[in-house]
Amino acid sequence: MNTVKVNAFAKVNLYLDIVGAKGEYHQLDTLVTSITLFDAITILKRSDNCVNLLMRGACAKDIPLGEDNNAVKAARAFIIKNNLDVGVDIIIDKKIPVGSGLGGSSADIAGTLIGMQALFKTDCDIKQIADSLGSDSGYMLTGGWARLNGRGDIVTGLPEIDKKLDLIILMPEGGCSTKDVFALYDSEPSLIKENGVNRLIDQLLSGDLVNYDLYNALKAPAERLNGGIKAAFTALKAAGAKKVFLSGSGSAVCGVFDSETALDAAYDSLKLQGQNAYKAQTLTAKEVAKKLFD
Predict the structure, then answer these.
(1) 3-class SS at 190?
(2) CATH class of residue range 166-283
(3) Do 117 and 82 meet the contact criterion of CB atoms below 8 Å apart?
(4) pLDDT single digits (tens) 160-213
(5) What topology does CATH give the domain 3-159?
């Protein structure tokens, strides 16, 4: 096999609290799940030691293509870890918006590592590599419903949750800088919420959609940095979303709808308004595994 293709899925944070700090990293308690939005990654073997990257698609604008790109870093780290004398060409059809809080960079790290392992048939610990390159990249290797702690590298899978949520995601212009959002949060930190993730897990297992207790401690600083976020919340509520939440550090704002019919009608309306809108559904880890190489 000289070529492999991998689908690297985005994620959303339905609950995100900051519960402390350790060294230079914030300590998180967050509930995440994969969604059907993905970057398509193709990796081809080379006869030399070069690692080249081509980014395609509207979401690829302004992403570095050289050694600073996280997919290139992942491929290099994999080659070194396995003591391989190889090179690769990486082609990424970029569909996950940059600066969205949907984990696009981490997805590319994970997808590249999964592809490299399949292409070169090794059994090394790629989570160790992923964790060294991005806080939630290790989670992206398996995806699905999970609770992340630490800086996002402590992953507790939640296979008991199989809830299927229909989402519309609005992307305000300008995105959000994760560094800037956290810096602004540090200037005005919020109180830690007790047992928030546990409550949401219970609600996902047994509760009705309207009772979901969604939360993001970074919402206020993200809104201050990007005024389009508050407008996106308003637009999704007006379109009939039952719940609306910010993913990660923004700027993606996600609306949860109670049926595909309601979602499709809202999506058409929002597109007519000129909104940068995406449709998505949540995915379990089993569904991610099944779709990885589709």
Answers:
(1) coil
(2) alpha beta
(3) no
(4) 999 999 999 999 999 999 999 999 999 999 999 999 999 999 999 997 788 899
(5) Ribosomal Protein S5; domain 2 (3.30.230)
